[in-house]
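pipeline stage [seq->struct] | target=4-hydroxythreonine-4-phosphate dehydrogenase | organism=Sabulicella glaciei | residues=322
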Amino acid sequence: MLALTMGEPAGIGPEISALAWQALRRDGPGFVLLGDAGLVSGVPVARVASPEEAEAAFPEALPVLHRPLPAPVRPGRPDPANAPAVLRSIEEAVALAREGRAGAVVTNPIQKAVLTAAGFPHPGHTEFLGELAGTGVPPVMMLACPELRVVPVTVHEPLARAIARLTPELIAEHARITHDALRRDFGIAEPRLAVAGLNPHAGEAGTLGHEDEAIVAPAVAMLRAEGIAATGPHPPDTMFTALARPGYDAAICLYHDQALIPIKTLDMEGGVNVTLGLSIIRTSPDHGTALDIAGTGRASPNSLIAALRLAARLAEARRNAA
């Protein structure tokens, strides 16, 4: 049984949770929603007291660990008064997974600006989960779909600052964590990593910038010296093509858009956010709260369904590896 957090209650989370249950109720994976049962409409709801009770209820109703919200919810209009409940939903889901009562955590999208206004100190889910379920290494974001896995070394920060932060050690650290996760959770015995270059044509031997020679190439050399099958720096304009993708198991990218543009172009609805380096399995749909369409019936549950299915597969792989 997976633990699904409420996410931003004024977003599309309640709607796609109900639609995901409709799609998965017969063949699973089963999940329990931690949130306000009153926000779920259009499907039968079972208020349950535990994940164990949810498992029996799942085929006939969406099981909800009812956590009432302090403020009314208006679709598309988040209320900071509900921010503490959103965070408690994440904390409780993580606790259930750490106790072995939930196989994995799947998170509905949060509205970061609203949480920040309420005093949330983290840039997003990834860093918060690192605090709740860290293993001594930095939590790392992976975006995955059937055709591509990408890992951004820098994430939610201005591009100039992201580039200034890049070092061979930072790139190698993200690659090591990715390598270990591919072996343990994805069942890939000898992962192959492709490291993207920073400049056009990966610097073209220094004529288009020296960062690839000074920062990226040393990181690749470090990884290869450790026995990790890493290559690069690869020209970013060609490494995501259909001919190039079969040559690696994950792409290590240097900044947010370098990673997210190719995967969202390939599979916007099937992309899944996976947090690596945690003591638990955590996935999330690869989209935001979609406040503009919340409550309109236009939201697609496909990315959430993909996140639930992947979470179940990764949890099983981790159990088998253990």
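stage status: PASS
auto-comment: The radius of gyration is 20 Å. The CA atoms of residues 121 and 167 lie 25 Å apart.
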